[in-house]
Amino acid sequence: MSIAIVGSGLAGFTAYQVLRRAGLEPGEIVVFGTDDDPAAVWRKRAAAIRQREMRSESDGHCRPATFPGLAFSSVRRRRSLRPLVESACDRYHPTVEEFLAHVERRRERSGWERSVRSARIERIAAVDGGFELDGRGRFAHVLVAPGHPGLAWPEELRDDPRAVHAYEPHEYAATVTVVGAGLAAATEWLNALEAGAEVVSVRRHEPRRMPLNVPREYFSRRGLAGFHRLADGEHAAHLRELLTPSYPLGQRFDEPLERAVREGRFRVEQSVNGSAQVICATGFLRGFEHDPLLARLVAEHGLPTVDGWIVLAPDGAVASLSDDTRTLALAGAASQWAFPAADTLAGARYVAHGFLRRITSCRTR
Amino acid sequence: MSYTLRGRIESRLAAVLIVLAGAIPLALAEHRWWPIEAVALMLGVGLVLDTQAYHRVLLYQPGWAALPLGALELGLLLLLMRAFGIMAPLEQAIALFAGAWLVAQLLGQAALPLLLLGYAEEGGELGRLGVVSATVVAVVLAGAASVAYALEPPVVHLAAGVHQGPLVITRREVLVGEPGAIVRGGIVVRANGVTIRNVSVVGGENGISIEGYRDTMLDGVSVSGAKLDGIHVRLGGVTIKNCSVDMLGNPLGQGIDISYNMDMGMSMVEGCNVVGGMNGIVTHSSMTEIARNHVSRTQTAAISMTEMSMGMIQSNEVRGALGVGINCGDRSMCEIHKNVVIDTRSDAAGGNKTRAGFGVEVLFGAEAELKGNDLSRNAAAVGAFQNSTVRWIR
Questions:
Q1: How near does any CA of chain A get to the CA of B285, in Å?
Q2: Which residue from B4, B60, B117 is facing A221, i.e. has the nearest CB?
Q3: pTM of the full structure
Q4: Is the confidence metric ipTM above 0.85 for this complex?
Q5: In 3D, which of B222, B319, B200 has the Cα closest to residue B272?
Q6: pLDDT at position B265, please?
Q7: I need a labelling partner for A148 at 20 to 30 A (CA). Which of A52, B25, B219, B323 fits?
Q8: Is pLDDT at A186 greater than 90 in this prediction?
Q9: What is the spatial distance between Cα B324 and Cα B299, in angstroms, rounded to a whole number?
Q10: pLDDT digits 0-9 by tens, A210-258
Q11: Residue A224 lies in a domain
Q12: Would you state the pLDDT for residue A58?
């Protein structure tokens, strides 16, 4: 056994699907994680913000290849070609239920349970020809998919009893302030308005409006080639710019917000006021130092970092710890250096493909 | 999908490879080069658009864009086929393009993403498969071009001056007359794929005779003084362009007679000037397009499509015919569009009502569709006899 995935969330799960598609048996892959339901964490967060449909489009799924996307499954289930037409127009967004059902199906079919070991890996040590994982074995190829290191809270609201994070379960008070400008914030505006609340949006910048987390060309070599060529400083600056919070264009957001503005139930302010409830839609902590496993990996192996990001090869591998006999790669938000939209399903697939290429070209395999 | 330039080109080449695999058998089956020429042109159009337009304008290409871009490429392809003189049946050419478009969509949206896991992430680049596709496409097209060149018929130049005929052509060749080249006594074609260009023919039983051979091209020929027909085609496929046929003084011969070639595909008479004769241009049991010709002073009909013929009579100018300008007869099906017929004189003095000087006459179970013709200056405009049908279209 020579391949390990550290992390049993959606990024690890997607990588597992890619490896299985490449012909690896469940017995050849070990997944270390704390929950054998790959959607467990994501499910709670989606439920917390009452998310009904995915921001990602037809190819936002856990399959190893982009085709067939979830629109195809929807065609069968809904007995309508509409999902395909919407998919061709980039307007198809699977529902959360559809996505979760898809994960469940893949989980059952892929032998995931046979590979999952319940364990939290706290240390990865490079050794000759591979990596030692917390005394749980030596692996030639390791994909680390640790997930987001925690929820980001505005410092000034950390001890405020009115404050709740968007990704934690909550109801809505009569007056709600939502801090943030991304998709979670936009979703919370609508949720609170629907619950009858008066909503104040507090944000540092006007939100960007775009269909996906980053511009579409950054999902392929078209945009990535130039991104990968940037020097470290420019690379980090560009990445910060790309990751500015945004939410999609469309009447789904505009119409209820415009109506609420007319009714005097929605306004924008610069600071938190006297609302009964403050919802922090401020996303996740960013930076390897917030994740104990990654922080230790960086410290013990002297990995290069810039502004909280671990510097990675274009395919998501840690260059100084990967060669033609072993691979250490990062997935999920930790691999944004390689793929700006790394914390999406497309990003998980991108890194998994790179990981697979490394494995198949490994001379000791 | 966000294609890189290389990805666009490689994805296109992979699709063309499959289309070529279909076009080659089609070309072999039809004994025509047009399917391969069309694919080569399709590729050329695509590559120019890829490099000069799509890559620059389309940072990201949504799936729906394949429809308008496909329509654009089809339009350009048809224009260029016309410009380069690639003679292809329109419906088949469109079907070939539609097939190629469908192959490209299936390949790009389904097959390649399944085959190459990172296809979308790589911006459509295919790696080694791309290099192989490009090589195979280049080899196949270069091979086809070499074969086509090797099969090009020899060109025979006919010097200025009078050459005593009849001249019998027994092999596939291009006969090109130098200015002033005249054949006295007629030309007889006895091979497929003969082209005769810029030759004047004087006399002969028929001026130019083609019986039983296909793919003959007559371009810029002139015929006069033939004893029977000016240009006589039986059981043969022919394209006649820019010709001149003088049948004055021969009231029984036909200017151009194309007959009994229904199984040879469409023949064409275009841009000819025919004077005199019994009929100026006549077809029997034939599929022929007769377009943009000038026909005058004929004894029976200027243009006649008869005996279960099918075809178009379009944009011709007919003057001074006796009895009938344009005739659609004997269960033929004729589309008669945008012709000008002037001064058709009555020949009904003997009591034959069908010879009353009709601009257009439809006879004996024939069906004619009339659209945009100018028939006002004739003894009679339109006549329909013996269970014939005339349909006017605005």
A1: 48
A2: B4
A3: 0.76
A4: yes
A5: B222
A6: 86
A7: A52
A8: yes
A9: 9
A10: 989 899 999 999 999 999 999 999 999 999 999 999 999 999 999 999 9
A11: no
A12: 77
Q: Residue A1 pLDDT more than 60?
A: no
Across the interface, of A65, A224, A357, the residue whose CB is closest to B113 is: A65
A125 and A80 in a common domain: yes
Q: To which residue do tokens 């008479």 refer?
A: B269
| Radius of gyration of chain B measured on its C-alpha atoms | 26
Average pLDDT over chain A, rounded to whole?
94
Residue A146 Cα distances to A6, A54, A92, A143, A149, angstroms: 7, 22, 29, 9, 7
d(CA A74, CA A94): 8
Pick the last residue of a domain from A280, A295, A330.
A280
Residue of A16, A67, A72, A224 to mutate, testing the B interface (most B Cβ within 10 Å of its Cβ): A67
Neighbours of B92 (CB within 10 A): 15
Q: How far apart are CA A178 and CA A307, in angstroms?
A: 27
Look at A59 and B63 and tell me if their CB atoms are within 8 Å: no
Q: Which of A30, A15, A2 is nearest to A115 (CA)?
A: A30
Give the gap in angstroms from C-alpha A99 to the nearest C-alpha of chain B: 20
Determine the average pLDDT of the residues in A258-279: 93
Of all residues in chain B, the percent with pLDDT exceeding 70 is 100
In a domain, A18, yes or no: yes
Tell me if B109 and A223 make a contact (CB, 8 A cut-off): no
Contact B2 A220 (CB under 8 A): yes
A57 and A22 in one domain?
Answer: yes
Q: Which residues of B touch A84 (CB under 8 A)?
A: none
The residue of B116, B121, B125 whose CB has the most chain A CBs within 10 angstroms, and thus the best one to mutate to test that interface, is B121
**B277 vs B122: CA distance, rounded Å:** 69
Instruction: Give contacts of A18 with chain B, Cβ < 8 Å.
Output: 117
Q: Which range marks the domain in which residue A263 is found?
A: 155-207+245-280
Q: Are residues A161 and A92 in the same domain?
A: no
DSSP code per residue over B213-281:
---EEEES-EEE--SS-SEEEES--EEEES-EEEETT-TTS-SEEEES-GGG--EEEES-EEEESSEEE
Please choose, from the candidates A25, A116, A88, A262, the residue with its C-alpha nearest in 3D space to the C-alpha of residue B105.
A88
Looking up residue A88, the CATH number of its domain turns out to be 3.50.50.60
Mark yes or no for CB contact B120/A66 under 8 Å: yes
Question: Cβ separation of B125 and A221 shorter than 8 Å?
Answer: yes
Measured CA to CA, the distance from residue A199 to residue A206 in angstroms comes to 16
